[in-house]
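Reviewer 2 asked us to include a model.

Predict the structure of this chain.
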Amino acid sequence: MSDNPIKRVINTGLSDLELSPNEALRLLHKAKGGKQVKRKMPMALIAAMIILLLALTAAAATLLWEHYVPGMKQAEKEKGTYSQWQIGDKEALVKNLMEMGYLDETGQVDRLLDPATPENEKHQIADQLMLKLTGQTDVNEISADLITYKLLGTEDSWTSAQRVWWNGVINSVRDQVDNPDTLVLPLGHEIREEEAIRIAREGIIKAFEMPPDGLDRARPVANLYITKARPDYRRWDIQFKFYKEGTTDWVERVYMAVVDEKGQLIADPDVGTPSLQEMAASRRELEAQKKAPKPPIIQAYMKYVEAENHALFRNWSLEARAAFSQEIRPLLAEAEKNGELKEYFTEEGVVIAGSDLRTYTAYAYGLPGEGDIPQDVALEKAMQALIESCGVSRRSLEGAASVAVYFDVTQPDKPLWKFFFGPNWEEDIKPRKAHRAQIDARSGEVVLTEAIPFSEMKPGDLRWY
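Predicted model (structure tokens):
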């Protein structure tokens, strides 16, 4: 590229800090009173200059990405995530990342930017480059957020200015009602960050009855913020994060406190943060719930969850769902009568909600018998019926992100094969739709076909099942 933005930033905004070897020699010559310097520049000085230039290049790349990403976030809001973009948008992203120094100028890039390259090949090349950059395996995971964290690291490692910038980027593409707070930089009149962290540390240790060194292994992260309700009232959000040993992004536990601009520990209803005393009481209750004996229905449910490797219910095997249905449905009435269907927690802190069990037992599940048509035959009938009645392509159904299969015996004399096809994220179709079909397991008759905008599908929606 003839106009490399990295060089442009260094040559303009950072020019005062750049020192070429010739310039270094000239400065040394001047320092010696104008005498010619004939010896070579010391290797230590050369190494220091190289390190400086590398740091300047990295800083310039960071500044360029910070300038670029707001436009990408806006594009995602208007056009959808990266996987849904037109090839021109993907090309622009790759080209900018290359010019920033995050992607190498390779034959793949040349092929991508060649007007003669077929569009489908361009999509493949762009996707391969972005997957390699982000370390992902699914193109649907690629987003402005993911790329930002890959290039800049986790937010906890950023400067306060970077977190303020990122908060502004996120808020710029959200509805105003969804912006509970805005991060800001200190003006000087508020309590200093170090003092706010000290106050929060002491308050947390006292409220949670910790030993004096209870937070020594945690990383403190401090953000100064204001809210729409009180824009002139500045508060520090202080979080002490415990990371899984050997990782920099796996947070195992967090303790938090809010310290206002005057150094007072407060609850902040503007952002839904309770007081330290309330948080400590909630944590003690949670710990007690984890250790408390679970009622029979919860114990039985967890047995199946563990056997199915904690998979979503709709991804369980037919055999697991049939056994679950036979055992759990009779327990449901008794559990509800005894008030046992509420939120429970495993030792790992996983929530078991009573509403989930009501959903999973809304239908009775079983296994096909001798008089029932096989699953593969029912699946073909379901796909053909959806193609004819909903206009969906076979390719879309076969490439669905997920396909859930159920054998419903709620009416024993009329068992149903049920199929739920998630959206095919590889296809450029809007709005994204899920499809479902039901086949009479005895007669093979098509009982139901339906296309559903995926945005309508919420947890607990019985159409999943």
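Confidence is low (pLDDT under 50) at residues 1-39. The radius of gyration is 30 Å. We have added this to the supplementary material.
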